[in-house]
Design brief:
Layout lengths: L3 H42 L6 H13 L8 H22 L14 H4 L12 E2 L7 H27 L4 H20 L3 H19 L6 H25 L7 E2 L3 H13 L51 E4 L5 E4 L1 H28 L3 H24 L1 E3 L1 H18 L3 E6 L4 E3 H22 L3 H6 L6 E10 L2 E8 L6 H10 L11 H6 L22 H10 L3 E7 L3 E9 L4 E9 L2 E6 L3 E5 L6 E4 L3 E6 L2 E7 H5 L12 E7 L2 E7 L1 E9 L13 E6 L5 E5 L1 H5 L3 H7 L1
Parallel strand pairs: 6-8, 13-22, 17-19
Antiparallel strand pairs: 1-2, 3-4, 5-7, 8-9, 9-11, 10-11, 12-13, 12-20, 14-18, 15-16, 16-17, 18-19, 21-22
Helix pairs in contact: 1-2, 1-3, 2-3, 5-6, 5-8, 5-12, 6-7, 7-8, 7-9, 8-9, 10-11, 12-13, 13-17
Length: about 700
Amino acid sequence: MPTDPTISAARGLLQKIGLELAFAPSSGTAGAATLRQLLNSLAESLPPTAPPDLRGMTMAAAGWLTEQATLSPGIAARFNLWHPWMEEAVSAWSHGLPLPPAPAGLPTAAAASQPAGDDAESQAVTVLPQGADEELMRLFCTEAEDLLRDIEQGVLTLEDAPGDADTLATVFRAFHTFKGNAAVMKLVVLQRLAHELESLLDAARRGTRPLTRAAIDVILAGADIFSKYVAEAARQLDGHDAGRSIPLPIPAVVARVRGVLSGEAAAPSPAPSAAPLPAAPVVTAAVDEPSAGVPTAPAAAPAVPAAADHPAAARVTAPHGGSIRVDTQKLDGLVDLVGELVIAQSMVARGAEARGVDEHLARSLGQLRGITADLQRTALALRMIPIRGTFQKMTRLVRDLAGQLGKEIRLVVEGDETEVDRTVIEEISDPLMHMVRNAADHGIETAASRAASGKPAVGTITLRARHQGGFVVIEIADDGAGLDPARLRAKAIERGLIAADALIDDHDALELIFAAGFSTAESVSDLSGRGVGMDVVRRNIERLRGTVEIDSRPGVGTTFTIFLPLTLAIIEGLLVAVGEQQFILPAVNVRESFRPRLGDVTTVQGRGELVDVRGQLLPLLRLGRHLGIETAAPDPLQAIVVVVEAGHDRRGLLVDALIGRQEVVIKGLGETFIGHDSFAGAAILGDGRVGLILDTTALVRLTTNRAETAA
């Protein structure tokens, strides 16, 4: 029997090798060199009395890297087979038991010592076999996405509350449903993995095997495999690389499940302060062709979200509380037609008012206006889906980041039932992910640092969503270290983003984090430090006609507030006249309008023209001069000031006259307007002319110099 120190040394080295394997593919030559050194140390730690196959496998693995500068995909695939086998072999050796048989990809120690190329022994999963029924596969993928969302969210809930019987039953039924659907489609390898994971959950349900951290990790690893398959299947169904095979680590995850069930996890769970190990080795198996049967869920299937995020389908509520799936292209077509109807109705009403109509026709036009408005609201409501799915993705992200960063972080979600336009949901996911990652990396401190400052060891990131006026407001708040305006100013000067003698207040200093190339990270890591990200976040949000605000206090925390329009298709606009042109201001951005009096408009050196709005001086922009249009009322006392806002910032726009309100359908701008950041789109007005929609965010945030130049 080996001595305890020998076993402990071998296990410790294998754990370090596992951690290195997680990052070696992306760390280049340095990662391969470190891995080679660890393998040599492992070989030296094994005594001569160790089983020959154990020593042979160790020496073989060290030999795979002798001729390689980096960890190639083929060698990585072989290592991903080798590592869990080595852990099982060491465990068997420590108990005086025979070594387990070598994995299919590593039949013997002698075979393992053969050079490993990129064509490592593995079978690829054929995602979309030739002759597959595309309609049934689309249905399978859409159902699978709903089930996988429920699984991931449920498993993360069970990690905090393993005794939650209802959630455990829901996750179990979701796996059971997925297994049934995979069986109908004859996706044998997916069915096998789902069965194994179902067995693990069943053991937890019966109380024979608790859901430990290792169990949660392997369930999430299995769900990741399903997600990868479904995403690739959807991509191939859309015509991209149809018939391509992909590697899926199903056998390795199956081995890990069985290890957890037997009480010896095949891959150890990472410590909170360590980066997570690879979810599973890369091993693949063949998939049979799907049958012509339709995947059906049993009656006990878990409830699914009210809407699907799949790009090809949306879910709308049907009578009696049910739901049906509708291709989103059909919904988009419906919204476009309703938009055209709104335009036609406005043109008819405008023409009738110009010619004068009798009382009966006026009543009919009023009724038509009401029906059109109701139809428009109903059509837009069909595109609205809860933000719940997007928030759920952040739960998994925070869990993984906490392990990778060695921090204790919890995510609090509020208002996830808030409904947002489907297009907004699709576009906001990446900016939200980046801000949550920044909050975990830069905001939340380590447990030791938090304890030293009198804070709870567990940091909190809060995601909130709510409706406010015509906007959806999303907040990302953390109770971390906060941002120090003085440090931000110093970093900006160091990076050459502002002049050393620039005078900026604390609010403007916080805004510096949105500058391209700005970063406060001391070193570049996998998560941050390259000075890219927050500027892209702001651009993406502004492309959605939204704004993002920041509020931070050193030592207390930071809050980002995002304001987004409810929908991107139809808006209520305020028509204004500038010279002979008509422009549209989004009504949700208009605060008020008034005719200035004598003394309300003044000029301040370095700040341009200002207008007095109830005792507060706001920058004034003469819209005609800014757009190069001759105005009908050059005297401000004969013009109108429209106060517009973007987040917490406001500015007065000087226009010739107000025409009125009108609901307009937003149309995209052509190449002619590329580079004109003053316009957000165009719309057909009631008289049939085209009106340009002004980008209030861009106008409010014009720099003083540009505003002065325009004036």
